[in-house]
Write a structure and sequence with these properties.
The complex is a heterodimer.
Chain A: E1 15-25, E2 29-38, E3 41-46, E4 53-57, E5 61-67, E6 79-84, E7 89-93, H1 100-112, H2 140-146, E8 154-157, E9 173-176, H3 181-190, E10 198-202, E11 209-212, H4 226-237, E12 244-248, H5 252-258, E13 273-277, H6 283-297, H7 306-313, H8 315-334, E14 339-342, H9 349-361, H10 368-381, H11 386-390, H12 405-419, H13 428-440, H14 451-456, H15 459-462, H16 466-472, H17 503-506
Parallel strand pairs in A: 11-14, 12-13, 12-14
Antiparallel strand pairs in A: 1-2, 1-7, 2-3, 3-4, 5-6, 6-7, 8-9, 10-11
Helix pairs in contact in A: 6-7, 8-9, 8-12, 9-10, 9-12
Chain B: H1 22-26, E1 43-52, E2 63-70, E3 73-77, E4 86-88, E5 99-100, E6 104-111, E7 116-120, E8 132-137, E9 142-146, H2 152-165, H3 175-186, H4 209-219, E10 224-227, E11 243-246, H5 251-258, E12 268-272, E13 278-283, H6 288-304, E14 312-316, H7 317-320, H8 324-340, H9 343-347, H10 350-357, H11 359-379, E15 383-388, H12 394-406, H13 413-425, H14 431-435, H15 448-462, H16 471-480, H17 494-507, H18 532-535, E16 551-552, E17 555-556, H19 568-572, E18 581-582, H20 590-593, H21 609-615, H22 628-637, H23 660-664, H24 677-702, H25 779-784, E19 789-791, H26 792-800
The chains are: A alpha+beta, B alpha+beta.
Chain lengths: ~525, ~800
């Protein structure tokens, strides 16, 4: 039996090894079959009556462990335990002869965690070709022009063209017209990692702006910085907002605690400004929450106390807080008031808030291309640390930097599409596809922590963009109910009454779910 | 039409609006206000200068008017109109602010100054002058009237009248009788005929033998016959006059057997699976001496009626399902968290509160049990007897769900309505007691019908294209239970219906002429309540149309299925008791049979535990392994679903949802402005309407010369009313559109969802949910977004304008 017949290898994908073993399916029990490993995926096909195949991109693997020892009893207790980043885990049993599992363990470790073995990620080996170049989807100047920038109040600056002002920011930034380059440098000194307040989005008719940044470096002593204060005042003046609203995404306790490490939040010294905490928890809380969610949905769905178990994961509650925060931002801005968003470093919660608020405010981002631009702009160019949060090709599964912040964002978008089924041009398959390739390492899109790193590693020239792939069959990702409505602000209801678990994503591995419900 | 100004989001805590408009309270309108009365409706009591509370404690949005209690409804008439964005489907029998007395669950009078509160019953005294009255309604609404400017005596009298008249002592006092009596005697010409046998719908009522005959033929149940032993209700007081039995049982036998059954409810046929298996239901056998013999004979007869002599399985519903009281208590809890408790305070614990209500648990249990029955019929090719003490409650739910899952006919509108007639109304479900229309005994009250509708909604939610009707239809059907005009929901069975009608005629001294019949309309005569236009709200735009008829010329066609498997061997391996099933023929020991789930301590039936022991090696990670019916379901789930074929619900608790439209429609904080599933319906309806229009145009151009438009020629052009033929065109192509939402005109992009659409559509929280503790809640937001007061009429007018 040739397994190769069952799987269409990608251009550039190469077979590494294959082996007969037993897959311990959590639903159908032990299944004999053959596993087939390439530099991109693990493929398993059962040779038994129960037809079952597994097709797992190695990128989703977070951990490979040996289970059972030479002395362990039971025929199925000696083998490998594979934990995945996408909610599932896989167990394979091998015959207890010789060192049958050593080879496969080493091969898996090497190809699943190439960076830990000084090997390239698969996206650098892929030879996939697509008609459209997804890397050109987002052109910062074009996007600013769409928003009506530059104008007499906002200017485009290239001060960061060599990533000298801030190495985690993009090269092209929009800042208040009256702020000089020197001002920007001085502000950068007072903002964590130089992430100064810059424009994310502006409303054309009333010039209300969303600016994003990191926390001010106030510290225990409560340092002040006149330049920072003046800069925010300049920002406020761009549209004459009487009071600039600063949304600090964190719970106030956390913001206070950050003072100990040199951070903090804006105090009363910032005149004509108000500070609002949005009570969104940090990356560690979100990671633990998703872990709990996984426990109640995989492999089997917790049946006897489903709703209270779901409640105790707090996953939906976190979704609610993120959405509620974004609603407050969108509400202010649509009311003509400018806002500044930050959390600690301004690359996790801040990215969630700015992108969700923009999705609510600007119908362009609800189109397929607009949504891609939104991800490229607010997440990728502004340095959401995808490499650290996802851990591409890295064996260190317990890394405290990992966190499903982007998954949470996509979940929030899904919640919005549920409440407004006609408002989005794309469908949930797109959202699931984005999440699949968030881990797969097939495309270069989500690699590395920021633009400067992607440039250094020549991502654009050496890898394929996810959007190239999406656009090669974009009709698959379109929502048939879509009714374009430009200018409409969407306010989802951030209430537990309406938030639901995205079952077709989180529970997609359960064989009791109809296959056609899946889009992958 | 509307200016687009987005509503504000819900996170704010809103301050209560400014104190009452001074001018308003000082000079309440003094114009003459009259209730609109139906024939036979009389005013019992009324009081003027009443304030209907709309928002918080006292708000300028409140309406001033007259509160009237009639023998049919609590009516509030006002000259004022709210300037609010509101869309509420209008009922022909009721005014905008009216509540039928049958819908009033509790009347609570309050005296603010004295801090007194009293729940009013019938014939009670009220020792204080009420400053306000709160009406808690059966459909989850909470309506509040304030008497601060009204005469204290008048207010008190109206409250007492509402409390008294909402508890009629006798079914004859339910308003429907007054209505038809007056219509008959006064021969009013209001277009609502009184003397009409069926009510003009296509729905089979199953009151005559021909409806049953047709159902036998449709399902190909050759070995079953309609029997008329119960004509005149001589055998059983709760079975219909005509029912279907195995052909091998003679009338003589049936008469003899009947005595042994609780309520003389003999086993009756419900429906035949295309493979010949029959679904039947029966009451418990009360005579222990006869039990075994009778069981044997009944089963033999059913086996004989099976073309392949398939086995018979008995499902003991009392043992496996929650009691009617448990279902009732569950809804009470759910109602509390949905509409009574403050919104924000319940947010944090919302999910566990829903869980604690157990409502979804019960929905799931009934669906699960129905799936098990489907498995026996479909997978084991065996017949099923649904057994229940009286066979008039739980079996109504299960038998109708089974038929909906297997037979696509029952997912059409007329099929579904016929099913409710067959399995509920004619099967003797005690609607009068379960609805508690007479408010005699709370112990008898149980929302089983609502539970059934919720189960149907779950199926609809999972298979949106499989049903001809919409969730709006289900909600409106449920609401109709509280309009005491329809024969459907007023009686405890067909005999009770006939007896009550007989007594009524006698009391009113009405002698019907030859061939004349006086009866209450069934709810299926929807034109009693809704305009033709509003009835289009029932039509599901994505319904996948009818397949070939189920049985043609007596020859049975099987349903479209992906594949057929026989599962008999798997079930036979396990002792029947543990699956909750007992195969009567094999004589299961009673001790084992009682091993099924007893009562419900917050858990659902456990699955087959023997299989667990046998297969524990194979199922290392599953704590609860699959039973045969689950394997059957899993096999079915592995293929594509056919909306016109067998449908099994996904039973994972994660896949069952709260029926938001029904339970949250009055809750202002939960409204998604211009959002919710209805916006998708809106988009597809427009598309469907466009297709309808194009098709009718095509027909016109292609059709025979006689029907083609005389002055036509040239390219087709959209007419301004959305494609209706221009004047002068002969009518054949001009069928009314099935769609409620119509495309603006052809060749143009469809308009976006209109502003009045919301997740509550076609219901509105404005004025329908005024919690006593509603202070500074987003209702004010809803009110502030205020633009137009819309009804279906003004919409229709706007469309033609």
């Amino acid at each position: 039996m040739d397994l190769l017949a069952d799987v269409a290898l990608l251009p550039g994908e190469e077979r590494v090894t294959d082996k007969e073993l037993i897959y311990i399916c959590p639903f159908s029990g032990a299944l004999k079959g053959k596993v087939f490993i390439t530099n991109y995926r693990l493929f398993f096909k059962s040779t038994e009556a129960v037809a079952l195949t597994l097709d797992v991109p190695l990128g989703v693997i977070s951990r490979v462990e040996k289970m059972g020892g030479a002395s362990s009893r039971g025929e199925n207790s000696y083998g490998l335990d594979i934990t995945c980043k996408d909610m599932r885990s896989l167990r394979f049993a091998l015959k207890q002869e010789g060192h049958s599992r050593r080879d496969i363990f080493e091969i898996l470790s090497k190809y699943a965690f190439p960076l830990s073995h000084s090997q390239p990620l698969f996206s650098y080996l892929s030879q996939e070709k697509y008609e459209e170049n997804g890397w050109s989807i987002y052109k910062p100047l074009e996007e600013f022009r769409r928003q009506g920038l530059p104008n007499e109040r906002w200017r485009i600056t290239f001060i960061n063209k060599n990533y000298e002002l801030c190495d985690t920011y993009p090269t092209i930034l929009a800042v208040p017209y009256r702020a000089s380059e020197e001002d920007l440098r001085r502000v950068a000194a007072f903002r964590s990692r130089g992430r100064i307040p810059v424009l994310s989005w502006i409303q054309r008719d009333n010039q209300a702006a969303i600016a994003r940044c990191s926390q001010p470096l106030v510290g225990m002593s409560g340092k002040r910085n006149k330049d920072d204060e003046r800069y925010l005042e300049l920002l406020r003046e761009t549209n004459g907002t009487p009071k600039l609203t600063i949304f600090d995404a964190r719970p106030s306790v956390n913001a206070v605690a950050n003072k100990a490490t040199g951070g903090g939040y804006e105090g009363d010294e910032y005149q004509n400004a108000e500070l609002i905490f949005l009570d969104i928890h940090n990356i560690h809380v979100m990671r633990e929450s998703l872990k709990k969610l996984r426990d109640i949905v995989y492999p089997t769905v917790e049946e006897s106390h489903w709703l209270s178990s779901l409640e105790s994961t707090h996953w939906l509650e976190h979704i609610k807080l993120v959405l509620a925060g974004a609603i407050r931002v969108a509400d202010k801005v649509s009311g003509g008031k400018s806002v500044v968003l930050h959390c600690s470093d301004g690359w996790d919660r801040t990215a969630q808030l700015s992108s969700l608020a923009m999705l609510m405010l600007d119908s362009h981002y609800r189109t397929l291309r607009g949504f891609e631009v939104l991800i490229e702009k607010e997440w990728l160019s502004f340095g959401h640390k995808f490499a650290s949060r996802i851990g591409h090709g890295d064996k260190n599964h317990a890394d405290q930097d990992r966190s499903p912040i982007f998954v949470q964002f996509i979940d929030c978008v899904w919640q919005m599409t549920k409440q407004f089924p006609t408002a989005f041009e794309f469908n949930e398959r797109l959202l699931a596809t984005v999440l699949e390739h968030l881990y797969s390492c097939r495309f270069g899109t989500f690699l590395f922590n920021c633009e400067s790193m992607r440039e250094l590693n020549e991502v654009r020239s050496k890898t394929v963009s996810l959007w190239s792939y999406v656009h090669s069959s974009s009709t698959r990702y379109l929502n048939p109910f879509y009714t374009p409505e430009s200018g409409r602000v969407l306010y989802p209801v951030a209430s537990m009454r309406h938030l639901e678990l995205w079952v077709s994503y989180y529970i997609r591995w359960n064989p009791r779910i109809r296959q056609q419900d899946l889009w992958l | 039409m509307f200016t687009v100004r987005p509503l504000k989001p819900t996170f704010k805590s809103y301050l209560p609006p400014l104190q009452t408009d001074v001018k308003k309270s000082l000079h309440p309108p003094v114009k003459k206000l009259e209730a609109t009365l139906l024939p036979g409706e009389i005013v019992v009591n009324e009081v003027n200068f009443v304030r209907k509370c709309i928002g918080a404690e006292k708000s300028p949005d409140d309406l001033w008017g007259k509160l009237i209690c009639t023998n049919f409804k609590v009516s509030f008439v006002t000259h004022e109109a709210l300037a609010q964005p509101r869309f509420q489907v209008s009922n022909r029998l009721l005014g905008e602010h009216d509540i039928p007395l049958a819908c009033v669950d509790q009347v609570v009078t309050v005296n603010d100054a004295k801090g007194k509160k009293k729940v009013l019953g019938s014939n009670q005294k009220l020792k204080f002058n009420p400053s306000e009255v709160i009406l808690y309604c059966k459909d989850f609404r909470i309506v509040r009237f304030s008497f601060d400017e009204a005469g204290p005596e008048g207010a008190k009298k109206v409250c007492l009248a509402i409390a008294h008249y909402s508890r009629p002592a006798d079914p004859q006092l339910l308003f429907g009788f007054e209505l038809i009596g007056t219509r008959y005697l006064g021969s009013t010409e209001d277009g609502l005929n009184a003397a009409r046998p069926t009510g003009g719908s296509q729905t089979p009522l199953f009151a005559c033998s021909s409806d049953w005959d047709r159902e036998i033929k449709r399902t190909g149940a050759a070995e079953w016959r309609v029997c008329s032993v119960n004509q005149g209700y001589g055998v059983s007081p709760s079975l219909p006059e005509f029912f279907v039995v195995p052909a091998s049982l003679a009338d003589q036998d049936l008469r003899q057997y009947a005595e042994a059954f609780s309520g003389q409810r003999l086993p009756v046929w419900c429906w035949n699976h295309p493979n010949g298996s029959a679904l039947t239901r029966m009451a418990d056998i009360t005579d222990p001496l006869q039990q075994k013999r009778l069981d044997q004979r009944i089963c033999n007869a059913i086996i004989k009626s099976h073309p392949q002599r398939g086995d018979v399985h008995k499902a003991d519903l009392d043992k496996n399902l929650p009691s009617i009281q448990e279902v009732h208590n569950s809804l009470v809890r759910l109602r509390h968290i949905c509409v009574m408790d403050p919104f924000e305070e319940t947010e944090e614990k919302w999910l566990s509160s829903v869980e604690n209500s157990q409502w979804l648990d019960y929905v799931r249990t009934f669906l699960k049990h129905s799936c098990d029955v489907v498995y026996i019929l479909e997978g084991l090719n065996a017949s099923v007897i649904l057994q229940e003490e009286e066979g008039r409650d739980l079996s109504c739910v299960v038998s109708s769900l089974v038929q909906i899952m297997v037979d696509p006919h029952f997912r059409s509108l007329s099929g579904f309505q016929g099913l409710v007639q067959k399995e509920w109304v004619m099967a003797g479900h005690r609607f009068l007691d379960r609805c508690n229309h007479l408010k005699k005994s709370d112990k008898e009250e149980s929302p089983l019908f609502l539970l059934f509708l919720d189960c149907v909604w779950q199926l609809m939610n999972q298979y949106p294209s499989a049903f001809e009707f919409t969730e709006t239809y289900l909600a409106l059907l449920s609401d109709s239970m509280w309009v005491p005009v329809f024969s459907t929901f007023l009686f405890n069975g067909p005999k009770h219906h006939a007896d009550t009608m007989h007594d009524f005629l006698e009391d009113k001294k009405i002698t019907l002429g030859e061939g004349e019949e006086l009866c209450l309309p069934p709810v299926w005569d929807w034109s009693q309540q809704l305009s033709v236009r509003d009835q289009a709200l029932f039509n599901n735009p994505i319904y996948v149309g009818k397949a070939a008829p189920y049985a043609h010329n007596g020859a049975v066609k099987s349903f479209r299925r992906t594949k057929h498997k026989t599962w008999s061997s798997t079930l036979r391996g396990a002792p029947p008791s543990q699956t909750g099933w007992s195969s009567t023929l094999r004589g299961t020991p009673p001790a084992l049979a009682r091993n099924g789930l007893q009562g419900s301590q917050g858990t659902l039936p456990r699955r087959n535990s023997l299989a667990a022991q046998l297969k524990s090696d194979l199922f290392p990670a599953r704590d609860v392994p699959e039973g045969p019916s689950e394997r059957f379901a899993r096999d079915w789930f592995s293929g594509p679903a056919d909306p016109q074929g067998l449908l099994l619900p996904q039973l994972l608790p994660s896949h069952l949802a709260l029926w938001r439209l029904y339970f949250l429609r009055w809750v202002p904080e939960a409204v998604i402005p211009r959002g919710g599933p209805v916006t998708a319906v809106h988009a597809v309806s427009q598309l469907a309407h466009e297709i309808e229009t194009l098709q009718s145009q095509l027909r016109r151009y292609k059709g025979p010369a006689s029907s083609s438009s005389p002055g036509g020629g040239g390219t087709p052009r959209a007419s301004p009313d959305g494609g209706r033929p221009p004047p002068g065109t002969p009518p054949p192509a001009a069928e009314p559109s099935r769609m409620f939402f119509k495309a603006g005109s052809l060749y143009e992009p469809s308009p976006p969802p209109p502003e009045f659409l919301s997740s509550s559509f076609p219901f509105s929280p404005v004025g329908n949910l005024c919690r006593p503790n509603l202070r500074g809640t987003p209702i004010s937001k809803l009110l502030n977004g205020a633009k137009t007061w819309l009804s279906t009429e003004t919409l229709a007018a706007g469309e033609t304008a």
